[in-house]
Amino acid sequence: MKKSENKSPAQLILHIVQGALIGLGAVLPGISGGVLSVIFGIYKPVMELLANPFRNFKTHVPKLIPYIIGMAVGFLGVAKLLAFVLEKYENPSVCLFVGLITGMLPSLWREAGEQGRKKGSYISMAAAFAVILTLLIGLGVSSIVITPGFGWYLFCGFCLALSIIAPGMSFSTLLMPLGLYTPFVDGIGSLDMNILIPGGIGALATVICLAKLINLLFDRFYTYAFHAIVGIVVAATIVIIPFESFAASVESCIINIVCLVVGIVAALLLDRFNSSVEVG
């Protein structure tokens, strides 16, 4: 994140929109809010804040407020609408976000190479890609169904926090095979305390336990960790592409392609606008 203290109205609006996309990405199936925070350049300050909240509160929170506002709108405000949209237009919605992620990959690749690339960088990327692809395919083909409860909603909170502090890990991808995704998102949209409380406890415990460790990992092994994220993102994106819907009919194929293209173009334009605003 750039160190400009006084943000222009255009920058504030852009950062709120980016925060909303991060919040939306946190609940949309297959998308990781952490990945979007990396792409928008706020992952490092967020992790620094989570790892040392008292030490970094004054320096980091003021810069992150526009993003936090956007995240709240994207996460809480869209959760209920998301359930409806996904039920009515599941494949086009997923294709739109696949396009967004695809269009953001060049920015993510630039970020990964910020401190140079080594042979180990490519090895970590390939290894992360293989591991995550195998894991997600395994979860996708499993047919485990469980009964939601307090303990399982703690687990949902753990997965949600993990998708933020470990970019590329989508909590929805982990919860869908277990039948927990829909009740969890519905509970968030309805502000159901029976779901929000255990989910919040699980998320908070995860951040406390893992934030310092992951922040240390990026400080000491930046190029390896970041290239691993690229591998994770590519693997997670491949898994969520609704290939079967492309073959369902000519109409659905065209709609999906249009959504993909719109997502890619929107992401490229957003990246270009982001660069021009930050430079200006």
From N to C, what is the helix and strand string?
HHHHHHHHHHHHH
Distance between the termini: 14 Å
Low-confidence stretches: none
Structural class: mainly alpha
Q: How many distinct beta strands? A: 0
Shape: globular
Helix content: over 70%
Using the CA coordinates, give the radius of gyration. Answer: 18 Å
Task: Give the DSSP E fraction (strand runs of 2 or more residues).
Answer: under 5%
What is the count of DSSP helices, taking H or I runs of 4+ residues?
Answer: 13
Task: Please give the largest β-sheet.
Answer: none
- Arithmetic mean pLDDT: 80
Q: What topology emerges from the helices and strands here?
A:
Layout: H1 9-27, H2 33-39, H3 43-51, H4 53-88, H5 90-112, H6 119-141, H7 150-165, H8 171-175, H9 181-189, H10 193-220, H11 222-240, H12 243-246, H13 250-279
Helix pairs in contact: 1-2, 1-4, 3-4, 3-10, 4-5, 4-9, 5-11, 5-13, 6-11, 7-10, 10-11
Description:
The chain is mainly α. The protein is built from 13 helices and no strands. The protein is globular, with a radius of gyration of 18 Å. The protein has helices at 9-27, 33-39, 43-51, 53-88, 90-112, 119-141, 150-165, 171-175, 181-189, 193-220, 222-240, 243-246, 250-279.
